[in-house]
Amino acid sequence: MPSDEFEVHPVAIRVLLVDDQPLLRTGFRMILEAEQDLVVVGEAGDGLQALDQVRALQPDVVLMDIRMPRMDGVEATRQITGPERNGPAKVLVLTTFDLDEYVVEALRAGASGFLLKDAPANELVQAIRVVAGGEAMLAPSITRRLLDKYAGHLPSGEESLPDTLGTLTEREVEVLKLVARGLSNAEIAADLFVSETTVKTHVGHVLTKLGLRDRVQAAVYAYESGLVRPGAQ
C-alpha cells in the first residue's frame, strides 16, 4: 500500500520543527500532521541545521526552540528573518518557561511570536495558522508578564520619546499603544469605535513609518521607546 506521507495539499502550511529534543519533535509532528492544512516538511536539532533546512525546504513557519547547541534559536531566528532571508519563513518561538529571558531577544530578532511548549494542541495549531497568515502571535497575558519582568531594562518614561514617533498621527499613536497591549484588530476597532479595515490601515501605516515588520516588533518598540510603560493600562 503506497504511503501518502509526502503528499501535500496545495494550500497546506509547510512547517519546520526545530528542537534539540527528538521526543518533543515527535510529539509536535503527531499533533500537526493530524491537521489537513498543516504538513511537517522537516526537522532540525539546532540552529545551524535549521538554517540549512530553511534554505532547502522553504517552510512557511518554523517552530523554533530557543536553547539549543551550536546555534541558539535567537541567532537562527535573526538569520532566517533578517535582510538576507531567502524565502517566506516566519518564526514561532517555543519556550519551556513563560518568562524565558531570551524571548524578548527572539522577538527583537524577528520572531512573529512565541508559545509555551506545554500549550494545548489547539493553541499550537492556531498559532501556526495565525503566523502563516502574516499576523503576529502576541498573547496579551504572557506578553505583559514578559515586559513587566524586564521593566528595569526598559525606559522609565522620564526619557524623551524618539523622534520617529513624531511621524505618527495621533490616531496611529493610539493604535500603537493598543497593539502593545496585545489587542487584536477587532478589539482595537471596538475600543476606538472604527472599522476593522480602518485599524488594519492604521497598523500598516505604523509599521511602514517606524520601519517595523510586524505587530510583535511594534509592541516591543512601544515599550522600548517609553511610549508604553510596563504595568501601565
UniProtKB/TrEMBL annotation:
Keyword Phosphoprotein in annotation: yes
BP term (GO), one: regulation of DNA-templated transcription
Keywords of the record: DNA-binding, Phosphoprotein, Transcription, Transcription regulation
Signal sequence region: none
One Pfam family of this chain: GerE
InterPro entries: CheY-like_superfamily (IPR011006), NreC/VraR/RcsB-like_REC (IPR058245), Sig_transdc_resp-reg_C-effctor (IPR016032), Sig_transdc_resp-reg_receiver (IPR001789), Tscrpt_reg_LuxR_C (IPR000792), WalR-like (IPR039420)
Molecular function as annotated in GO: DNA binding
Protein name: Transcriptional regulatory protein LiaR
Organism: Streptomyces lavendulae subsp. lavendulae
Gene: liaR10
